[in-house]
Design brief:
Layout: H1 23-32, E1 47-48, H2 60-67, H3 77-90, E2 94-98, H4 101-112, E3 118-121, H5 126-134, E4 138-141, H6 162-172, E5 180-183, H7 196-208, E6 213-216, H8 220-230, H9 239-247, E7 252-256, E8 267-271, H10 274-287, H11 298-310, H12 314-332, E9 346-350, H13 351-354, H14 364-376, E10 378-379, E11 381-383, H15 385-388, E12 396-400, H16 408-423, E13 431-435, E14 446-449
Parallel strand pairs: 1-10, 3-4, 5-6, 6-7
Antiparallel strand pairs: 2-8, 7-8, 9-12, 11-12, 13-14
The structure holds ligand F0G.
Amino acid sequence: MPTKTIIEPFRIKSVEPIRWTTREQRKDLLRAAHYNLFLVRADDVLIDLLTDSGTGAMSTHQWAAVMEGDESYAGSRSFDRFKASVQDIFGYTHVIPTHQGRAAERILFHVMCKTGDVVPNNTHFDTTRANVEFVGAEAVDLLLPEARRPEARLPFKGNMDVAALDELIARVGRKRIPLAMLTVTNNSGGGQPVSMENARAVSAVCHKHGIPLYFDACRFAENAYFIKLREPGYSAKSPKEIAQEMFALGDGCTMSAKKDGMANIGGFLCTNDDILARQEQDLLILTEGYPTYGGLAGRDLEAVAVGLQEALEEDYLRYRIASTAYLGDHISEHGVPIVQPPGGHAIYLDAKAFLPHIPVDQFPGVALAAELYLEGGIRSVEIGSLMFAGAAQMELVRLAIPRRVYTQSHIDYVVEIILRVWEKRMQIRGMRLTYEAPFLRHFTAHLEPVSGSTAATE
Ligand code: F0G
């Protein structure tokens, strides 16, 4: 019989100390970083929830595989193992290694898109959108309208609006849509899963019009596990069988192995199209490297080959999804507003509802993230008006959970700090920009608190 307590399915062989700072120190550090947590040194962070990308802990099997890395320039054994592992899960004919996800995106859109084209997606991640726009095409998000409400509890809140896809194709014409994408899980939309039924429907619409469907597969294993838990007919299937079934609906994928590849670096691009693959490999050689390493070391390919399979293990996924939900459930039961239901890799605080007294143009998400750092040394990231300027749909603060890194007591600590900040939320004041770059401003922006005494401005 399954137990009530879900434990970490590993024991710890190597540890990395984390460092405490005092509240006084953090006050100075925040001021010196212009209230932008990207500008804080990682050593000055106690619990780092900035991203789940490349921040995971590798297993003993992965480290052992690293030692087996074949660093030959061409035709390395490590590439054969990498390709076999990717094909086992994804099933596509051509596997092109890249140094991370955005390199795969750049090559894909460069080869498939031109000025005036339109690329639909459930929600483009920011690098995906930027790479579509960089080649002069338009990135269109077709998320379900009800998924834009943080409090709406839908089992598959990452689904694409299939009727809207149909309408888009009718409106702009098939010729202007060189491909459609489906992001699993939907990161920008709250780490929410896409159902098999939705993927099937999107695939059917695309293929009826001869439009290739590509998956942005970064968190494919978490998505597969949500399908197993929530979609009728899938409870007896393994996460790998579910992933295989989903990828068979598409024509290729982009992947950042820094997420469900369980590696610190790496990615790939897959396609079933022989002609495209040749063009993609030519571009790869130009900027990334020879097609059997694509900018990675042989040892990196080995780590990904093993990591992709580990990400699909049920013990791991049960713990992974449970630990994210644990954080979300323990804060929301005290009234803290979050994007519901908890996603796979992160909890998103709804900063607009958390700090209703701070207007959107005073960046409630930035103010909340700064306060979490001040209170407990926790680093999170604003996903709202600072990141997306006028295009922000919501004001969120993302707490992304690195894979296999923090234990339950770390998460209990995060819960305690969030609840403390929740208690004194009315004292928190908004922020104003003092410097911004012309694009992707959130990485380097400088801010300061607006006047008035606040916890963050003490
Ligand atoms: N697609 C999605 C859905 C992502 O979440 C990311 C990265 C990428 C593509 C790009 O991959 O970083 O390897 O080039 N997301 C990270 C994050 C950065 O923090 O969510 P990359």
